[in-house]
């Protein structure tokens, strides 16, 4: 069997295994990043024209591209509809970017921690992953500068608004500073914003791409966290120098994104009913976030430290006594609790023990307290064994 | 700007440009492979459960995988649902296969001519494309043997049933012979069958993958030619040794295929109404094929040779006096006619002048005769200029 060199880097996905285990109905899962079932909006298909069944354009539906560009401009991103590419979920943006930029040994710059499925596809293509540590308000700027002085990354990949997994939201000052550094060193920015609309305190700074003056950029978003992930409709907006390449890569990946989902997304983007839905979603998740925080205080205050997330879907816990959290998985699942170990969110997992990513949006509130109680018991048991 | 080495092979797509030009309403287009608008079935969405809006499994919807496996078994393909991967249109199968197999310089074996979008993605990943010529009933077997003796291709990619672009359908004997050769040399088969159901004479031999005894294989199909391409729902079925790798690649490409389209496809696959629709589709396209043949006889009998296609969507014309048909594009579009030049369907376009691919399914029958008349005039004019 002669596979590609690339295929030797195909890892068994820990996420897949955890999510599969978490399917069992008795499992209390803090593992995935799933929207709450109850908050999936009812959608209507009756008015969809038959023509949506025909082949479409690789760029995406023209009206949807216009609507997405208008939304992005309202956020401060200077763009035209011609820069918008509809993709099959924003995961596809990462696939297209990997193809455009990464050969074996290509250096790229990432936050530590970073989104694990981004890490997987970048590493699959052979990237050499340089990282910059995250602080509570964004990256460590002096470390970012030194990385840029010492390396020539093909791009930097950032999730500045309610980062997955850390929930960090970059401050205004750090957004400006990051943009200035990228312009200074001429580094392309890929800015991933799936969680922007899930803000619980009303605030969210404008995207970093809107602060760039020179560097190339790709901004990517999705309707998966706010409308329906099952539609698989995301988008990217790229600086004009990058767009034609990404379009060709999109065409060769899957011709175009499904038009049925695009049509449905268009019924919502920019509409009053979408604003209404987003507002309800924020209220709903804020209540869940608060309940989660309260249960965490009860069960984890002696075990871990964390920041209360102001948006997104996750708490990111740092254990006071670090251990390899991957070793907790089996005991947790035996207790019918699933969580996401923190190690796979780093390119060097063995150098970053002791974090847990806990999703607060999906769990049934009735089972929240029991779930965290059991998870805390698993951690306590492991500590005791460690100490023995 | 530091792109990947791969990106240097991103070609401007002739297809894209032709299809874009063909969008103008006055253009009579023989260029694309679009289903006839009138034959897109009316679909109903009222019964779709809300849960289809949630994230789904990378493998695809369990019920759809079962239905697709049952259909494939009925065709003679020995498989279980666990070997079925739902993909975002069968173009994605080619993307996943390219990732799994192709490094720069990897040898692969293709028909000449072959599907041009397959050629594009295989070449993008750096494949060294070896070809075997097609005859009226399948590949030249002695050339296939000698290629297999001289090369060690990572896989062979075949479209044995109503091939795009040539419309060739392999005979029973050649299917058996190809399978035996692949087993003898231990070469993996990727068998692409988008057109199987579009048969006009009722016949179609069983897939080649069902005749293999040892080699690994990927069989791929789609609902795009028979239901709705806008759903972007295709599938692959793989031998068990390949499936886990393809699944991981699928996950990193776009997490999973849209569930809305999967749900709709499931309403049709294996149903009586689908059989009824397919039967109507065959009748409709057979009439269009016959009308096209008749108009071709009128306008092209002195200019080209061709076989009458027994299925699929295309006529493949060989000009009696070969010339680079790409040079005809501008004159054709000036006359409001679009067609697909034959050269891009070969890895060495400059060695294969003189073919035209003409789609017969999409053109308005009222404009068919005028369209072919104008196209013939363009060819005649170019011949005259050539001779001068």
TrEMBL record, chains A, B:
InterPro entries tied to this protein: Aminotransferase_I/II_large, Class-I_PLP-dep_aminotransf, PyrdxlP-dep_Trfase, PyrdxlP-dep_Trfase_major, PyrdxlP-dep_Trfase_small
Domain Aminotransferase class I/classII large: 46-375
Pfam families: Aminotran_1_2
GO MF term set: transaminase activity
Necessary cofactors: pyridoxal 5'-phosphate
Entry-linked SUPFAM superfamilies: PLP-dependent transferases (SSF53383)
Keywords attached to this entry: Aminotransferase, Pyridoxal phosphate, Transferase
Name recorded for this polypeptide: PLP-dependent aminotransferase family protein
